[in-house]
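explain this:
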Amino acid sequence: MDSWIEAHARFTPDKPAVLFDGKVLTYREMAGAIGRLAGYLRSEHGIGCGDRFAYLGTNAPDTLVLLFAAARLGAILVPLNWRLAPPELAHAVTDSGARLLIHQPAFAAAVAAMAQDGALPSAICADPGDCGLIRMAAEHAPIRPEATAGSARDALLLVYTSGTTGRPKGAVLTQAAVQANALNAIHMQGLTSEDTVLTVLPMFHVGGLNIQTTPALYVGASVVLHDRFHPDKVLKSLAADRPSLTVLVPATLAALLAHPGWPEADLSSLRLVATGSSDVPHPLMRGFIERGVPVLQVYGATETGPVSIYQRLDDADAEFGAIGRAGLHTSARITIDGREAGVGEVGEIELKGANVTAGYWNRPEATRECFRDGWFRTGDLAEADGNGVFWFRDRLKNVIISGGENIYPAEIERVLRGFPEVREAAVVGVADPQWGETPVAVIVPSAEGACDPRALLDRFDGRLARYKHPKSVVLVAALPRNALGKIQLDKVRKMAEDALAREIELKKA
């Protein structure tokens, strides 16, 4: 995969590959940095084929150079979600067996906290503002492309995604999977070397990394990189950097539409916006469409790269609201209890293709559970029409998607069960106009009057990432259960919605 950058360095050496905070990294410079960083990682830290190393930081050129250096070494990059709490980060580092942790200065306190919870590998700190990691490796002898230890079959990314049990699992993506994903994305968006991509979503997610960013580098386009999403900065960048494409999730779409500068924003360079991560509210898409910018939906998962089912420009208007068709290098089907569903029947989406994960790191049982006859089971529900167009309907799993982030109720429930004033708890997602969904905890107190909802919420600090904290607590006498004693989550959700509606009415009164 590292050959992508080498090829562009030969054909368009002075073309900007990455633009970040006023700095430009050309394809020639990026190719050189990849070789030197690979040399540094091998000579100074012993990183070789099959070794894992973790990266904790916001978006920066270092992130992308690390990815391609890993490809050259045949090593595996473990991108860490900087929104997680230290115990969650520590789990990913230790579970992956990472030999090295690279982090930005802003996360030094988190790294120190992780070290207190258990043994961590050696760590190095690099400032993204001056491409510190690239600079750190500047004097090292490069590993040339002809000496690469990596191959298409090698694992490249180990991306942690929580399961419904709440225990994070590392999805393994090979170099071949990332390349197949790039080809899907190129087919979806018509990407060419003339494009400029604006990347504002975090690249620790495959959405931020692989819907447009790595595909852009595959075709020799330019990437304008923001450290994280800032609405003001995005609107200024649209005018100054003139990107032709960007990826936005519902929460970021909503933030831009609500910004006071939106009505006058210069969108003239955008030829499309890609979106996904949840059932995208139609008004958010129409907000861009009404300004002359097509919006394409893309569907997938961490385990699939993610680009698997998608719309193309020719189809977006006629199939508004659909998630699209199976991709160029992906097959998709809908099943009901193992049988293939008929036209119009709602069932589980299953995917197969070169972009799909090789499995979960050191979790053979979880890997077996997620595959059926070679097909990856997404846990999402959809139906397809007679033309092979897929329409997302619901989630089979209980995942809550809030602002593009996956939140698993079991993680929150496990924390709640550790509080003495909580006898029982169930967490559900409730619709939210800004975030898509937010988690609400429905709790049976251990004793009447013993549970203070506000105090309970405050105790989540440091236990889970802030975006996973319940936004509200609803106290009930009992949780509804079926005849088998299982909690009926649909009824729990109705209880939560009714309670929140009453609160709104009281505030109005």
Remarks:
- The chain has a mean pLDDT of 91.
- DSSP finds 17 helices and 27 strands in the chain.
- Residues 64 and 214 are 8 Å apart (CA to CA).
- The longest helix spans residues 489-508.
